[in-house]
Specification:
393 residues; Arc Repressor Mutant, subunit A; 7-stranded mixed beta sheet; 18 strands; 26% strand; globular; SAM-dependent_MTases_sf; SAM-dependent methyltransferase; Thump-like; PG_1098_Fer
Amino acid sequence: MDSTILQPSIQEFINKNINTSISKLALQKNPFPDVEWISILNQIEAKTKAKDKLPTWFNTKNIIYPGKISVEQTSSEPTALYKTSIVSGESLIDLTGGFGVDDSFFASKIKSVVHCEINPELSEIVKHNFEQLNIENIECLAGDSFETLKRLNRKWDWIYIDPSRRNDAKGKVFMLKDCLPNVPENLDFYFENSNAILIKTAPLLDLSAGLSELKNVKAIHIVALENEVKELLWELHKDYEGEITLKTVNINKGIIDTFEFNMNQESVFPDYSLPKKYLFEPNSAIMKSGGFDAVAVNYNVAKLHKHSHLYTRDEIIDFPGRVFEITAAFPYNKNEMKSYLSGKQSNITTRNFPETVENIRKKWKIKDGGNLYTFFTTDANNNKIVLICAKIS
């Protein structure tokens, strides 16, 4: 760890250049010849990325940032906070510590946290940062986490793992066996050290693929931030063989929308209907979960079509997603399009529709934006329809 970066004059320079173009700065002469220019530029770039994602780190003095990739790959503060609702007990060991954001939040709930990091320099940086953040109940251990688990030889209330894809796995279907550490291969060993395991994966991982590689899954948490799915959390408990709960979570400005259902429950049978007064579009976490019938039955809304994943009813309700009032509904044809939309401005969404948004815009000369929201979809009678809507929430 290069602590020269903490010199007050360098820290002042870094703070003054947040949001400044790195490519432009790179062309300038280094005002601090005793420190590598690339190191200073890396600090500026990483701290800029942390401004919105990690405000606690951004607003704390003398934080040292690793490469920007570590900041890009780490959890945001809201998603890290959500994880604390899952874990409990006295002890937790993180086998893939990284920048340590998740551990800082675990430490607010768990008495003793161990941060394992295979990169010794990153481990040192994280230890320094925890000191700046006044977090005293996290121990940072550098080295291979498998060997660390063996050496410590104790039972933990929780093991936390955020496996990363190996470089040689690019282009392959995302599988956990292609990540480091190889969780499926090591799972029995992990269960020797803890009865509860929490695994974070990228949303790219297909749910059925994850379930084919793991065992004893009790719950899968699909976590979205401002309607963008950021991570999947796999909650495993030793010897658990019961129903798997799918929990969808959308965090938006401190408000958390949740919806959960049993993945293995017998099929539920939703109602189908032509468009009524209101249209409901599930948030991205629900879309990832595949619980399209479950959400229809739970919220008493009718589906427009089996594969459209849009819902309707005559009364407005509190719904986990976007809510619209339908102001016009018509068949998708030339005359209707010319009458309602050609040459106008609208936000366009397609669901179960044969044409792309780009093609529709070009074909009918529809500009992007404005206050209109238009859905191109298929109705319960298999007809291609257009719904013009006003957004309510």
